[in-house]
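Q: Beta-galactosidase, please. Structure only.
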Amino acid sequence: MQLATRVLQFLGFAACAVRVSADSRCFTEDFLFGSATASYQVEGAVKEGGRTPSIWDEYCRTQPGLKCANVADDFYHRYKDDVKLMVETGLQSFRFSVSWSRVMNWDAQTSRMRPNPEGISFYHSLIDELSSNGIVPILTIYHWDLPIELHTQLREEGWLGSEIIDHYVEYATLLFNEYGNKVNYWTTFNEPLSFVAGGYALGMGAPGYTGSLTQAYTAAHNVLLSHAHAVKKFRELKTTNAIGDKARIGIVLNADYAYPLDESDPDDVEAAARKMEFDVGWFLSPIVTGDYPPIMRKIVGDRLPQFYGDQSELVKGSYDLFMLNSYAARQVTSCNSKTSNKDCGTLSAGFEQDRAVDDSHIIPGTRQRSTKAQKDPHCAFFTAYPPGYLETIKWLHKHDTSADILLTENGWCGDDEIDNPDQLWYFQAYLEQVHKAITEEHIPVIGYTAWSFLDNYEWGSYESRFGLYYVNYTSESGSPDFYQPKPSDLARIPRPSAKWFQKVATSKCLNADETSATTTKTHESGGHSHHVWRWLFGIVAIAAVGFVA
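A: Structure for Beta-galactosidase:
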């Protein structure tokens, strides 16, 4: 019955895609079609312009098998040409992050970060270039690249200590004052689940800690308080005209929808709900209600920090819109169920054992990794089940039906090829779900952001390729000692999805013929594998670290 239900659901989706040709599948004129990158993943120039090291510059050098991002896509030097490509691709928005250690440097005498004018100037130039070409900048304040001194020089390391809150608010305030009248969309953090659970629970990303019963919860608490204080400062500055009247701020959360493995089994239903609360509610519930989800309070107990005094009211309502990254969907059961592929005892102590789920089950009808990427551990989790995208959007929407939703990342993990039909199919199929969310569910989705604009550094690897544009990396890419690419290196080559995206972005309408032509193809799985650390929190064994975001 479960298999039949899933197959029928998928066939229903495919049939809907075929019917597109008979209907008008258009978005409103103000809907934002965009793409995204992140500072450490594309900029390179790690020793230029006054930039100092981040925790990822250290982490990639100390972990066996990881590559570094000294050069990455060399976006720091090539951004003007890349903006021209954005215009050619029809982008109306571009999401990027600021490198904290590029705009601020550590001052050993004051034990504070101080502004770096050259780094600040770079982002002024980037924002101005985007705006002058009619592209809306979406600025991410923190995308995982913590300045190394904030990890090594404070009383407690990085996000594990409350000292970090003041440092973060000083940094955010600098950006608000510098770019406040140039940027209308702000996000405080990208995917706190990923860098908190990955870095402080699972040992799958900087700083690489695992085994603690409390570290992830402590780090998450400090992230939430940093976010809330920054939003408070943002709103104060709006009253002084330092920030434009139309500017809005939020926090980017990541969610991949959890279906019960057996919808008739109450334990599986509860496991799926528990996964959503631990993965998303952990950060969503505090900003909506002022506290963590009740299920987390029940399971984690006194290991989960409290919001004291006015902290609950500070955190509650600290968003102007919802922002969502989502890529995949899975079936879920409890780790102690008879159908589980994981023994609870094999899960990492703390967050993973508290969540206690097995989310490795593939939904019937799911499209697996690209054929040539079957052996790439980085792409294992990035499977495609389009109906799950709509369910994720609906799940988020029900927490505040008045909040606009900006879709800030969505994309396909491909391989080292330019013509990637799976990627094209993915964007077509998932944008169908976005259109459904707006027209059938009446959810106020205001924009869609493809991850990523360019192939880029995926947190330890260059093998996972998400770009609308293929990047021609060299054998030296990723070397910890490589800093100067040749002008002929790193050529950008448009994939078919870039050309299709341009048509959709400029017409604001989906092309039914192209969509229906590719909806029925599926791939066989090569078995269960590992995944990029930023989403695969259910799989502990991992061959290499990576992420999109």
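A: Brief note, in case it's useful. Residues 437 and 443 are 6 Å apart (CA to CA).
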